[in-house]
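Hey, I'm writing a tutorial for new members on how sequence and structure tokens pair up, and I'd like a real worked example in the thread rather than a made-up one. If someone can provide the structure for the chain below, I'll link this post from the tutorial.
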Amino acid sequence: MISNQSFVKYSVFDILHGMTATLEKPRRAKVLDAAQLFEQRIRDGAYRLRGIPGERKLASDLGVSYMSARKVVSQLIDQRVLRRTAGGRLVPGLAMVEKRGAQIAFVTPAFTSQTTMEIQYELARLAAARGMDLRPVTYVQPSDPIIFQAIDGDFDGLFVILPVNAPQLLLDRLARDRERIVVLWRDLSHLGIPSIVTGPSRFIGKALDHLAGLGHRQIDCFNSLPHDPVVDDRIVHWRAGLEQRGMSGILHNEPTEPFRCSVTAAYQAFKRLIATGDYASAYFCLTSELGRGAVRACYEMGLRVGTDISLCGFSEIGVSRLMVPSLTTVAEADATPFLLMGLEWITTAGKGWNRPLRLEPDDVKLFIGESTGPCPASKLGA
């Protein structure tokens, strides 16, 4: 016969055991969720930039206890998702290494253009079709250490859009890893690095010829971008193009600081220009983004774009076509074949390369929009 005292003890133990089991279920579920999330991050290449964290940092990242993080790591080591090096560092295990394709980084400024986003989408598509993964890496300053971290990271190759005034140390670092580096829009071919230039500055002459055919004899150049080799090269070709055609033009140059919105800066600068009352009949804007700001300034100042004043842009054809009025633009070539060449360079480490390192089109098109028209009679003598 069980005494009342024994019965009470048994009942309390039973209750406590049930409470412990109830508490253990959510803990186990949390560890399972954390393990699944951590494994997915490893599969997605989330740690290729800075490496896989240890248990203490992992606990903070996943929002679990240190003991739970240890369980997660132990579980993934057992599943060969992770392995620990002789030095104690966590790295992808054989289960990950066997399955993964090439990992490509796309290094870009944090504040980017529509063209850059389109390039990223196309590069991701081309990479995925070849079993590769693309991971964007963004920086906010030319000196941002994340650019160097990307080069040192666990990536098989990198496509890089360089910052304005890239430091020489960065250029030297890129040159040392040239067999897995491809640069966009800057020419670093002299460093042995493939350089994709889809809109060479020499085609600015197409815009000048179009405006000259409409009777414009003075074609000014407008810029509010911070100076870099690309901006400077376009200005040089605008000047050379005018000289070759016996025409005149003034450079209106108000460079802003890096990472400022180029459209807003262009709008404000062009509005000040028009307010002087001394403006040309035609302007070549160094980018179509600048042209968009100039169009808005003209509208607010009462000028009819395409009638009172003509505006041309360069690249960013997607923006140009959708503007009102549409912006006459020197279009860039389709980037797809050049991106494919870049992927080929990375996958072969440049071995057997028989192409020039400067990857550029033989020709580009001029999109004629509504923003250009005949030179006004009042400006014919200018």
